[in-house]
Amino acid sequence: xxxxxxxxxxxxxxxxxxxxxxxxxxxxxxxxxxxxxxxxxxxxxxxxxxxxxxxxxxxxxxxxxxxxxxxxxxxxxxxxxxxxxxxxxxxxxxxxxxxxxxxxxxxxxxxxxxxxxxxxxxxxxxxxxxxxxxxxxxxxxxxxxxxxxxxxxxxxxxxxxxxxxxxxxxxxxxxxxxxxxxxxxxxxxxxxxxxxxxxxxxxxxxxxxxxxxxxxxxxxxxxxxxxxxxxxxxxxxxxxxxxxxxxxxxxxxxxxxxxxxxxxxxxxxxxxxxxxxxxxxxxxxxxxxxxxxxxxxxxxxxxxxxxxxxxxxxxxxxxxxxxxxxxxxxxxxxxxxxxxxxxxxxxxxxxxxxxxxxxxxxxxxxxxxxxxxxxxxxxxxxxxxxxxxxxxxxxxxxxxxxxxxxxxxxxxxxxxxxxxxxxxxxxxxxxxxxxxxxxxxxxxxxxxxxxxxxxxxxxxxxxxxxxxxxxxxxxxx
Length: 477
Hints:
Number of helices: 15
GO molecular function: RNA binding
Family: Belongs to the RRP4 family.
Helix content: 40-55%
Keywords: Exosome, Nucleus, RNA-binding, rRNA processing
Strand content: 15-25%
Pfam family, one: KH_6
Strand order of the largest sheet: 8-9-10-12-11
GO cellular component, one term: nuclear exosome (RNase complex)
């Protein structure tokens, strides 16, 4: 006992029928260290703690000498030799070999039990898993056996689900088909094992999450980046986010943040103000973006210098509240963005639905404008604004010079498609899934068994997103 006046925790007396001596000794040494027992008191405390059974073993080995006159190492050596000799190795091996996987026992739980008995693999309940492991021969290790068993078990569970779906649809599978299915399952398990091994071999950068005030590093060799500040030669975080290091530069990427544009980004924005020779556009940035009159196409695609008359007619082209798609042309010194719509694929947007998500989950790609097979067009703005609309013909778009004026009623079927896409995007965003065209299309197809309104139920959203992720994983995307 130290100057605290009390002991931390307790260790019960040793009983060989209930606990292995090696395990007990490790626990006891941790307890002695935690309570700061001095070397002078260690022997007396040890003899008092081990209990009558172990104490009698010590006495029988050193009589007529006094146990308290022995060193701590001598006492532990006596007990180590005694309890190691009393172990029946044949009985332990028999117990290990006879240990089988229980009906409701998972692979993970079964492995924990095996580790208590031995370091060698054996006793799996599933014959397919056994056969696969036996093919490895002498090259089989505990690590590879563990990975293979988990992979095959997962694949077999998936195959049962597929079989259940086939039976529910009225299809039958003959014996030859069953053997083919088994081979497919084993192949899937092998692919999964290779992926696990590859991911373990590849060096991965550990992402560190910090909150404001957390110390990132005390190393003065690093340079301060965004989201950090220096205090008493320590680099601290100013925002909650993930620490990233580029050479000697450390910065923090916030978990939730406004959009920081880059040249070439595709954005969707709303006109906030009409000023002299320019429109101010809300693009979910810290500052409103600037769209100059000289950076837009005139209606009809006319190419000429902008005149004073064009400046007076600016509200006829774009007015407050209008939605536009544009591209980032440059970034000003204060961080605001300069936009342009000089390409015919950009310009004023007509009828559709605007969905707002975090800019962090919009995947950067070469193309952000897609015509989906479901009959809708989407613009995945890098700023987190996503525009969903009916598909427009290229002739109609080109004729208007980027200013879409089609106000015809949208058919009910098309409106349902647009709303379903919106709900799918919101479901993916709720699970922080990266958004791109294939992901959204898979989610749309997975949602077809539900009504549009049911996609607003949290359980339904999770189910659809889970199925989407499985399809993406199987497709290698």
